[in-house]
Known about the structure:
Layout: E1 4-9, E2 13-19, E3 22-23, H1 60-72, H2 87-95, H3 99-123, E4 127-132, H4 138-152, H5 155-158, E5 162-165, H6 168-172, E6 187-189
Helix pairs in contact: 1-3, 2-3, 3-4
The protein binds zinc ion.
Zinc ion binds next to loops.
Amino acid sequence: xxxxxxxxxxxxxxxxxxxxxxxxxxxxxxxxxxxxxxxxxxxxxxxxxxxxxxxxxxxxxxxxxxxxxxxxxxxxxxxxxxxxxxxxxxxxxxxxxxxxxxxxxxxxxxxxxxxxxxxxxxxxxxxxxxxxxxxxxxxxxxxxxxxxxxxxxxxxxxxxxxxxxxxxxxxxxxxxxxxxxxxxxxxxxxxxx
Length: 193
Ligand SMILES: [Zn+2]
């Protein structure tokens, strides 16, 4: 793939960018800090010192923290029974229909989608790959990402764009391989026609 962007969501949120088949390195090999794109001017303070960075919403610790806070505030959730909540718990409970877990991940998808739309407008990639534990809940996450990408990036840039997830096996091989299951669920092509 000549031009692609890998978005990874783990303890933080980052991006790897491939332009013309080469990894885009930037100054001092620092680049792709999409986690520090501001998505909410009145959001929480980020470890970088600024406020409302993507990473304050779309990173594993931030997701779990928000779910825990909402439960403490009295919102109902099947996760309330758990003493220790992990990102896997949030995903599995969301997939099992827990509304709080589900809405939390939709929010993450919306904000990720906004930041991804910005990178699409900047780099016009052929492919966007999403990696991280949250891809367990791709059926919840991807529609939210797709909606935002379609609304916020140029139609000519996203009309043939492939957006897919990188599975753990491929991740272990350190490659972008993702076509082992290239059915409609595993990737979306944001064709508008
Ligand atoms: Zn930040």
